[in-house]
């Protein structure tokens, strides 16, 4: 069956094989693995892959350019933090990459929720100041991508005069903008600027609440917005096998931490991570099969909740999110390469078929 409108399935690629359950066995940049990971996502039928960002990560622009050379149809979502590159320069970089990848690029604008993380790159603005800068930054990006000629801008953080809008994206009107963050400031900026609002794998009640807030924010600006949800599916041929694998993953993660090879637990300071911890505080399993124990173990520093079950059961739970307006799903596994291929066998085809049969999300069909 063909995809239902707007359904998009994303993955995540990285430059080395590592996870909460696997210590890195190679250097930080392993070209062979990066190519294999990107090709595995294309082979498995993913539409797009995220290239993450942190203060110790390899440069995402170059990672995306290399991965684009290794693939033909796979699209990319490049995480990018405002504040370290001029927005006019970033606009040219992103537009250039959009052309060189044949229009396969989107940008995920990350304001940064951790003061400690930001300060590693020399950024000492407060969280509120960072959000104001992000808003101004995206405004300049869009002007650079869409203006018919040179433009001026005099905003809260950026001022340019006669900036040429010469390097425009292949995609029109501009490269798609993803955005995340659950604070009031983030929700307001998302409603005004984002094409897609991205959130972690929260409970259904949490997702219902944040989707409502973001949609209300977008409506104030006469806009509509799409939503993406990130999860770590754990599959088994039977439900019992899936839960046994989840327990094994938890034990492996604990052992890696105890051996000093896992990331130390630092409890999330960003509101999105705090919401995952709130979900975890409500129990190890929420709703039908949302598993929270890895989020609790790691301090919810990122995408760390799972749906556990057979492919059919996981799809059933995904449809509950779909009915709340989630039309984009990001999946990554604890066995990064193997799970990518495994998802392509049953999970992705079954989800596409189920969404095609279901039609528009209930939250949208009811309007």
Report on the structure:
With 367 residues, the protein is α/β, with parallel strands linked by helices. The protein has a domain at 8-80 and 176-233 and 308-365: Luciferase-like domain (TIM Barrel), CATH 3.20.20.30. It has 14 helices and 14 strands. The protein has helices at residues 31-44, 60-70, 87-100, 115-119, 127-146, 184-193, 204-220, 239-258, 271-281, 293-298, 311-323, 336-345, 347-358, 362-365, and strands at 8-13, 48-51, 75-80, 105-109, 151-154, 159-163, 177-180, 196-200, 226-231, 234-235, 285-286, 290-291, 306-309, 326-331. The protein has an eight-stranded parallel barrel, surrounded by eight helices. A four-stranded mixed beta sheet has the order 10-13-12-11, sandwiched between helices. Strand 5 and strand 6 (159-163) form a beta hairpin. Helix 2 (60-70) runs parallel beside helix 3 (87-100). The radius of gyration is 20 Å and the shape is globular. The model has no long low-confidence stretch (mean pLDDT 94).
Give the name of the CATH architecture of the domain at 8-80 and 176-233 and 308-365: Alpha-Beta Barrel
Going across the biggest sheet, name each strand in turn: 1-2-3-4-7-8-9-14
- Average pLDDT, all residues: 94
Please estimate the helix content.
40-55%
- Fourth CATH level, the homologous superfamily of the domain at 8-80 and 176-233 and 308-365: Luciferase-like domain
Number of helices: 14
Kindly provide the radius of gyration, computed on alpha-carbon positions and rounded to a whole number of angstroms. 20 Å
Q: Report the structural category.
A: alpha/beta
Strand content: 15-25%
CATH class of the domain at 8-80 and 176-233 and 308-365: Alpha Beta
Overall form: globular
Largest β-sheet summary:
8 strands, parallel, barrel
Separation, N- and C-terminal Cα atoms: 26 Å
Quaternary status of these chains?
single chain
Q: Uncertain regions: pLDDT < 50 for 5+ in a row?
A: none
Please name the CATH topology of the domain at 8-80 and 176-233 and 308-365. Answer: TIM Barrel
Along the chain, the helix and strand elements come as: EHEHEHEHHEEEHEHEEHHEEHEHEHHH
Count of extended strands? 14
């Amino acid at each position: 069956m063909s995809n239902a409108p707007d359904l998009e399935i994303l993955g995540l690629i990285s430059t080395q094989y590592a996870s909460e359950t696997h210590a890195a066995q190679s250097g930080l940049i392993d070209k062979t693995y990066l190519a294999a990971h990107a090709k595995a996502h294309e082979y498995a039928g993913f539409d797009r892959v995220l290239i993450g960002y942190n203060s110790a990560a390899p440069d995402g622009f170059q990672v995306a350019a290399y991965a684009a050379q290794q693939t033909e149809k796979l699209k990319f979502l490049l995480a990018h933090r405002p504040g370290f590159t001029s927005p006019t320069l970033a606009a040219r970089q992103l537009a250039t990459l959009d052309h060189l990848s044949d229009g396969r690029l989107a940008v995920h604008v990350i304001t940064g929720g951790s003061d400690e993380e930001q300060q590693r790159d020399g950024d000492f603005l407060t969280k509120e100041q960072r959000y104001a800068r992000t808003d101004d930054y995206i405004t300049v990006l869009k002007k650079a991508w869409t203006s018919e000629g040179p433009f001026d801008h005099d905003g809260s953080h950026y001022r340019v005069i006669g900036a040429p809008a010469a390097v425009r994206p292949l995609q029109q009107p501009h490269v798609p903008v993803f955005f995340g963050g659950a604070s009031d400031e983030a929700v307001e900026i998302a409603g005004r600027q984002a094409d897609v609002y991205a959130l972690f794998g929260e409970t259904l009640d949490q997702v219902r609440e944040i989707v409502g807030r973001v949609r209300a924010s977008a409506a104030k600006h006469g806009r509509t917005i799409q939503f993406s949800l990130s999860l770590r599916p754990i599959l088994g041929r039977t439900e019992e096998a899936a839960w046994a694998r989840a327990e094994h993953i938890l034990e492996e993660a604990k052992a890696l931490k105890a051996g000093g090879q896992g990331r130390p637990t630092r409890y999330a300071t960003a509101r999105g991570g705090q919401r995952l911890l709130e979900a975890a505080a409500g129990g190890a399993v929420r709703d039908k099969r949302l598993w929270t124990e890895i989020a609790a173990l790691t301090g919810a520093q990122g995408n760390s909740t799972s749906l556990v079950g057979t492919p059919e059961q996981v799809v059933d739970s995904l449809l509950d999110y779909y009915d709340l307006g989630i039309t984009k799903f990001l999946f990554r596994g604890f066995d990064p390469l193997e799970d990518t291929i495994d998802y392509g066998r049953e999970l992705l085809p079954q989800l596409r078929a189920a969404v095609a049969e279901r039609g528009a999300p209930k939250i949208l069909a009811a309007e």
